[in-house]
């Protein structure tokens, strides 16, 4: 079977090639899949997509016309795929339901700690042999309040680490997590969580009801010296409202591993380009903002699990099997 994988990093490629070796023909591309690049998938029965690929109805139609029958996404989120259109076109769609929650939770804490203790600023200074401490003062997380929006596997892992720091736990989700309750987490409405938390970490999927959950009103409720971390989906935060909040001198720090308009920017080298996204450019001018490149999931453990699940999705498709990873089942074969 012919497979084309999009948005493949140099570190990820050997794992993908090993997973499909001797069974399928795999072509790995660094570019993203969208209306401009969809022609590269012609004649490939399987497309292996990433979160920044734009699989709207038009792209899906052209994939189907080119012979694609299965889209298997190397991620849990799938808001970039028009599932009703895929179903109407007879395209099967699968994803990776889960992978190491520790990878993302640990990275969220890496951002929180780096922002709180001014690590990026300190490293920049010491590279110039400036070892002064002015402007580098942080604070203890111990005894303070962590607000966790979304207590699924990743959010729960984040909460366990917070408990290890000796923090008070506030959470919000549709259903309380028993493990988080055992840690002493109190489930509260988002408005109270924003108002009381010293550290707010986002671990929610991007859905219509969660889009811009962190808007101007939510940011206004947050403490002036609160820290905000997002390792989930960029669309959870209204970036324009965040810029206005930071310009007003509010929030002690922000750690962003995701950004609403990251497609076409993240995962690529734009060091020689003019940054045309004014909001992202403005965010990165604030000394208390740390932006990383959607890398929270990027550990050997997590990527290995993602690749293994992707390979299983292909084998399940060939066997006519549906499972927890199936988003759109393949049409019944005559």
From TrEMBL:
Domain annotation D-isomer specific 2-hydroxyacid dehydrogenase NAD-binding: ranges: 110-296
Signal peptide residues on this chain, from the entry's feature table: none
Protein family (similarity comment): Belongs to the D-isomer specific 2-hydroxyacid dehydrogenase family.
EC number: 1.1.1.28
Keyword set includes tRNA-binding: no
InterPro entries (alphabetical): D-isomer_2_OHA_DH_cat_dom, D-isomer_DH_CS, D-isomer_DH_CS1, D-isomer_DH_NAD-bd, D-LDH-like, NAD(P)-bd_dom_sf
Organism expressing this protein natively: Streptomyces boetiae
Annotated D-isomer specific 2-hydroxyacid dehydrogenase catalytic domain residues: 11-324
Keyword annotations of the record: NAD, Oxidoreductase
Single GO molecular function: D-lactate dehydrogenase (NAD+) activity
The organism's place on the tree of life at top rank: Bacteria
Lineage summary: Bacteria, Bacillati, Actinomycetota, Actinomycetes, Kitasatosporales
Protein name per Swiss-Prot or TrEMBL: 2-hydroxyacid dehydrogenase
């Amino acid at each position: 079977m012919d497979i084309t994988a999009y948005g493949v990093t140099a570190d990820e490629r050997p794992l993908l090639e090993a997973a499909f070796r001797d069974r399928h023909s795999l072509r790995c591309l660094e570019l993203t899949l969208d209306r401009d690049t969809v022609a590269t998938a012609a004649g490939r029965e399987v497309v292996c997509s990433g979160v920044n690929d734009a699989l709207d109805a038009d792209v899906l139609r052209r994939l189907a016309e080119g012979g694609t029958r299965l889209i298997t996404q190397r991620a849990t989120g799938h808001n970039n795929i028009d599932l009703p259109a895929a179903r109407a076109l007879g395209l099967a769609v699968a994803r990776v339901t889960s992978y190491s929650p520790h990878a993302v939770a640990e990275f969220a804490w890496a951002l929180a700690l780096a922002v709180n203790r001014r690590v990026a600023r300190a490293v920049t200074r010491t590279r110039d042999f400036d070892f002064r401490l002015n402007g580098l003062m942080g604070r203890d997380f111990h005894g303070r309040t962590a607000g966790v929006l979304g207590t699924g596997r990743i959010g729960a892992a984040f909460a366990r680490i917070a408990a290890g720091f000796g923090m008070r736990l506030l959470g919000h989700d549709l259903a309380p997590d028993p493990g988080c309750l055992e840690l002493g987490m109190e489930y509260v409405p988002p408005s109270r969580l924003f108002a009381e938390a010293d550290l707010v970490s986002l671990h929610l999927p991007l859905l219509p009801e969660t889009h811009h959950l962190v808007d101007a009103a939510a940011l206004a409720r947050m403490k002036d010296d609160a820290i905000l971390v997002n390792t989930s989906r960029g669309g959870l935060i209204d970036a324009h409202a965040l810029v206005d909040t930071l310009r007003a001198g509010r929030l002690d720090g922000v750690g962003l591993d995701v950004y609403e308009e990251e497609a076409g920017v993240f995962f690529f080298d734009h060091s020689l380009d003019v940054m045309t996204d004014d909001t992202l450019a403005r965010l990165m001018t604030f000394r208390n903002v740390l932006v990383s490149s959607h890398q929270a999931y990027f550990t050997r453990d997590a990527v290995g699990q993602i690749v293994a699940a992707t390979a299983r999705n292909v084998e399940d498709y060939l066997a006519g099997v549906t499972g927890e990873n199936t988003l759109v089942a393949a049409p019944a074969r005559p």
